[in-house]
Amino acid sequence: MAEFSATELSKPDLYKFMTRVVVPRPIAWVSSVGADGHYNLAPFSYFSLGGANPPSCVFCPTTGRDGSFKDTLRNIEATREYVINVVTYDLVERMNQTSYTYPHGVSEFSEVGFTAAPALTVKAPRVAESPIHMECRLFTVLKHGDGPLSSNYIVGEITHFHVDDALLTDGFPDNEKFELVGRLGGEWYSRNAPGNLFSVPRPTKP
Ligand SMILES: Cc1cc2nc3c(=O)[nH]c(=O)nc-3n(C[C@H](O)[C@H](O)[C@H](O)COP(=O)(O)O)c2cc1C
Fold first, then answer.
1. Residue 130: CB within 6 Å of ligand 1?
2. What is the 62 CA–ligand 1 centroid distance (Å)?
C-alpha cells in the first residue's frame, strides 16, 4: 500500500484525497435568504443525514481559501432557515453554474435563471425546477478548525418535504423514478440511473 500521512499532506492535496475517496456524495442544493431579503442558491456535496428523531441533516460550507465565509453560511447564521433541493441529471449544468462566486447580494436565482417558489415553514425559497425540496431549520453550526478550508457544519432539522407527485410510489419517493447525481473527485459526477440500481435485502440470520 502507498502510505500518506494526513499531517504531512498539503491542504489542497488533503482535499483531493478526501473528495476522491468519499464518493459518490449527494448534493444539497441549498437555497437561503439573507437578513436583507436577497435569495441565494449554492450546491454542497459535504452532505449527509442523521437520525429521524428529529429528522436531522448536515452539510458543510468550508471557509474559503481567502478565509471568507460563504454566503450560504452567512445567511443561515442570520436567518436560521434554508431549503435543501435535490439535483437531477437534467439540472446538473445549471446547478454547477450556481456554484460561481457571485458578489454578496447577487442572487443565483436570477443570474442563472431559476424560479423561486415559496416554502411553507421557512422564509427561504424553494427551487421550483427541482423535484424534491426539504425545508430546514438550523439546529447548530459546528466549526472544526480555523482559517482557509476549515469546516462549518450546518446541522439542521427538516420541517417539511415537497415531492413531485410523479416520483412517488405508494406515497414515498421512489428511487427508480428519478435520477439524482452524485459528486466524485475533480470534475466527475455519477448518475443514480434507474437502470443501474440493485437491491440487497438486510440479513435475516447470522
Ligand atoms: C457539485 C458541487 C458541490 C460543492 N460542494 C461544496 C461543499 O460541500 N462545500 C463547500 O464549501 N463548497 C462546495 N462547493 C462550492 C460552492 O458551491 C461554492 O463555493 C459556492 O460559490 C458557494 O456559494 P455561496 O457563497 O453563495 O454560499 C461545491 C460546488 C459544486 C459545483
1. no
2. 8
Percent of the chain with pLDDT over 70: 100
* Residues 72-115: tens digit of each pLDDT: 999 999 999 999 999 999 999 999 999 999 988 899 999 999 99
- Please list the residues that pair with 152 across neighbouring strands: 143
Omega cis (within 30) before 54: yes
Q: What gap in Å lies between CA 42 and CA 69, rounded to an integer?
A: 13
Residue indicated by cell numbers 432539522: 157
Question: What is the residue-wise DSSP string for 55-96?
Answer: EEEEE-PPPPTTSPPPHHHHHHHHH-EEEEE--BGGGHHHHH
Tell me, using a 6 A CB cutoff, whether residue 46 lines ligand 1. Answer: yes
Residue nearest to atom 10 of ligand 1 (CA): 61
How far is Cα 67 from Cα 174, in angstroms, rounded to an integer? 41
CB 89 within 8 A of CB 191: yes
Q: CA dist 142 to 18, 29, 62, 151, Å?
A: 20, 20, 11, 8
CA neighbor of 142 nearest in space, from 72, 77, 79, 83: 77
